[in-house]
Amino acid sequence: MSQTLVALVGTDTITASRTTLNSSIDALLTQFSGTAFPASPKVGQTCYRTDQQCIYLCKSIGPSVWYLQTDLTKTVITQESGDARWVNLSGSSALLPSGNTAARPASPSAGMIRHNSETGKFEGYGVAWAAIGEDAVRRTVATKTAGYTVGVGDLGMMFVATGSTSWTLALPAVASVGNGFFISLRNAGTGLITIDPNGTQTVNGATTLVAYHNDCVELVCDGTAWHALFQSPVSIVAEGVTANTATFITMPLPTEFERFELSLDNFASVSTAAIFARFSTDGGATYYSGAGAYAWCQGYFSTATAGQYHNGSSGVIGATGIELGAGNITAQAGIMTNFTIRIDAGRTGYSPSISWVLGAPVYSAVGSGYLGVTTRATHILIGSSSGNLNGGRYKLLGVR
To answer: Structure pTM?
Structure first.
C-alpha cells in the first residue's frame, strides 16, 4: 500500500516512470491507506486509516483537517433483495434525517422515515406522515389553566384542565394537521372549557363545544372537520351549595344535551313556603311567571299526623311556577327535602317540562308540570315562593 501520489513532468518517460505510476495508482486504489494521514494531502482527498478501520476526507490543508466519513467497525452492511433495500446495523445506531414539520420533503415517497424535531417523534410516510413505533401509541399529559392553541406538535396529547377559570381550547386548522390527528381533554377543574375549531370549521357539526366539570373527550380530525367522542354520556352542567340568604338558584340548559337530571339535597324554605321551578327561553334574561304560564299536578302522602293519608294538588293554567311539593308539604319551615327532577328543555313544537320525586322525613310526592310554550328552554330557576331557601346542595346533569 502507498500514500504517495507523484506528478509526472514533461521529460518523464513511461518506461522510466513505471514504478512511480504503480505507486500512485496503488495509493488511489487503497484511498491512501495507512496508520497515519498522508503528509501532503489535497483538499477532497480520502484516507483509509487501517489502524482505526475508518475512512476520512480532507477538508482543508495548512494545517490538514480530516473529517470522519465512515466507521467500518460499526459493521454497516447494505443488503438487497429484489426491489427491497435496507441497512443492517449490528451493535450500533443510524442517524436519521431530523427537522421540523415544515422541513418534511416536498414530494415524499412511501417508506420514508425521519425524526420530527418539532413534535419530538419519529415519523414515517405511507399515504401521509404519521408517528411510528412507540411514538405512535405513547400519550403525553399536559396540565392547562388558561387558554391554549393546539399545534401540530400536540399530536396525541392529553390536556388536563384544572382550576376554576373558564377558558378556550383553540383547535388548529384541519388542513394543517390532516386526517387522523387527535388529542384528548379532561376537565378536572370547575370552569367550562370551550373547544373552538379554527374559523368556520366545526366539531360534531357545531362551531363550538363545551367540556363541563369531569368531562373527558377525544377530539379527532378527519381532514375536513373535528369529531368529539365523550367517555360518558352524562356531564355535570352545574353544581353547588346555596346559602340561606338566596331566594333562588338558576342553571343553564345547554343545547347539546337531550335532557337533564337535577338533584336537590336537603332543600327547604326558611319560611313556611313552597319550592317552585320556572323556565326561561331567552338565555336567562327573564323567567316565565305570568298568568297562564304553567300547569302542574302531583300526588303525595304524609305521616305528619296519626295514621297515613294521601292527597293530591294541582296548579291549573294560570300558575306562576311549577310547585315542587304542595304548599302544605313544604309549608313547615326548615323541613329538609330531597328532589330528583327530570327536565326536558323542549324544542320547537314541544313544551319544556319536568317531572319529580320528592322525599322528606314525613312527606313524599311525585308530580309533573310544563311551561305552556313550544320553545326550547335555555335556563331553569329553583326558588322559594316566599322568603329564602334554607341552604341545600344541587347538581344538574346533562344527558346526551
So the answer is: 0.60
